[in-house]
Amino acid sequence: MPLLIDGNNLMFALKEFGLDVGRSGFCRLLSAMVQRSHDRDRTVCVVFDGAAPHGPLMRQIEAPGIQLRFSGRLKADELILGAIADSTAPRRLTVVSTDRQIRAAARRRRCPGLTSLDFAQQLLAALDRPVPRPSEPPEKRAGSTAQQTQEWLREFGIQE
Fold first, then answer.
1. In the chain, helix, strand, coil percent, each to 5?
2. pLDDT digit string (tens) for 120-148?
3. Helix, strand or coil for residue 24?
4. CA dihedral for 126, 131, 137, 139, sign (positive or negative)
5. Which residue in 65, 116, 118, 148 could disulfide with 13, CB within 3.0 to 4.6 Å?
6. Nearest CA to 88 among 112, 109, 67?
7. Smallest Cα–Cα separation from 5: which of 73, 67, 52, 92?
């Protein structure tokens, strides 16, 4: 099953777990996942913003089993949206991104999707690496409960 990954987005998610590996380390992690995978037909396309590096810098980033695409003057999101729209087998294309527009486009085409944070957890688990806790508590992502909101409103003397 092919994977289409929003590269910068997933790299940011890995940083949430305390893993700041740069592009070359990031691609080596993905390559190791592909090598361990039982799905030998899995293709992984990673899309990054900006121009592709030249010469030795590009060779440092390249990794077996990983196809790299750089957006040039476009945004990576535009390339990803185009790839989703152009897919001849969207139900087999797994899209990894936390971007709402990309996730909505994937849902419309019935592509399986994962947030970058969820995929980062799966990636680390697949590589038998300890999965550290994200730097932010889950409550920050979920927001306050209705009861907590009411308590804060009372605390500050705000009436609804």
1. 50, 10, 40
2. 988 888 877 665 555 566 666 667 788 88
3. helix
4. positive
5. 116
6. 109
7. 67
Query: What are the backbone dihedrals phi and psi of residue 102, each rounded to the nearest 5 degrees, phi first?
Result: -65, -45
Return the structure tokens found at 18: 């305390």
Whole-angstrom Cα distance, residue 32 to residue 100? 28
Alpha-carbon gap, residue 42 to 19, rounded angstroms = 24
How far apart (Å, rounded) are the C-alpha atoms in residues 18 and 31?
20
Looking up tokens 């940011």, which residue turns up?
12
Where are the domains positioned within the chain?
A: 3-135
> What's the one-letter identity of residue 132?
P
Measured distance CA(157)–CA(160) in Å, rounded: 10
- What CATH number does the domain located at 3-135 have? 3.40.50
